[in-house]
Amino acid sequence: MCIPCALILSCLVFKANCEEGYYCVKGSTTVWACTAAFWLRIVLHTLFLKYVVPRFRLEGESDGADSNTYKGCSERIAASWVTMNPIYVLRSQYFYKHSPACEYCLPGKEHRLETNEEIGLFFNDCAAAAEDYNAPHVDTDALNGHWENLHSYLDLIKVIVDVIVGGFVVICCYLFILICLTP
């Protein structure tokens, strides 16, 4: 979102140029003002996301990502970068000649995947007796306990980003440009 917001700020600076009651710059200075607003907005947005947003995390709360390993996730989840990448599947079969080769993962056909620890394939499953249309397509075990927190954090971050970053950065950039470019 920082690039579209920076582009909007840059356009705002351009459109505000020579409006009644505002600054008026001519020539290449307008381009430099728009460019400065663009990059300043990106830098401030990035700094905000890096240093301010993590401070809103609850103390002692962990999402469990520290203890998860690729092997543990790959044993539970059939779809991965390796099994969903057709180029990797072809390369595994024809170029590297892995035995067993990597198979392409299709929803409902996960049982066809074979385990090969050398190339990072750890998923193993048996064929379903009948097709289950109510089966989740997402690993719900990984989401248990975090879904409510995710919604509350998402709402909080959305409000913070909209109010603080959007308004404050636009005002700061506008004041910066007014101070630097007024005669």
Shape: elongated
Average pLDDT figure: 81
- For the terminal residues, how far apart are their CA atoms? 34 Å
Approximate helicity band? 40-55%
Structure description:
It is a single chain. The chain is an all-alpha fold. Among the domains are: 2-56 and 158-181, no CATH class; 79-124, no CATH class. It has six helices and no strands. The chain has helices spanning 2-16, 28-52, 70-76, 86-95, 140-143, 147-181. Helix 1 (2-16) packs antiparallel against helix 2 (28-52). The longest helix has 35 residues, at 147-181. The chain is elongated and about 75 Å long. The two termini are 34 Å apart. The model has no long low-confidence stretch (mean pLDDT 81). The chain crosses the membrane at residues 159-179. Keywords: Membrane, Signal, Transmembrane, Transmembrane helix.
Could you give the topology of this structure?
Layout (H helix, E strand, L loop, with lengths): L1 H15 L11 H25 L17 H7 L9 H10 L44 H4 L3 H35 L2
Helix pairs in contact: 1-2, 2-6
Structure in a nutshell:
This protein is mainly alpha-helical. It has helices at 2-16, 28-52, 70-76, 86-95, 140-143, 147-181.
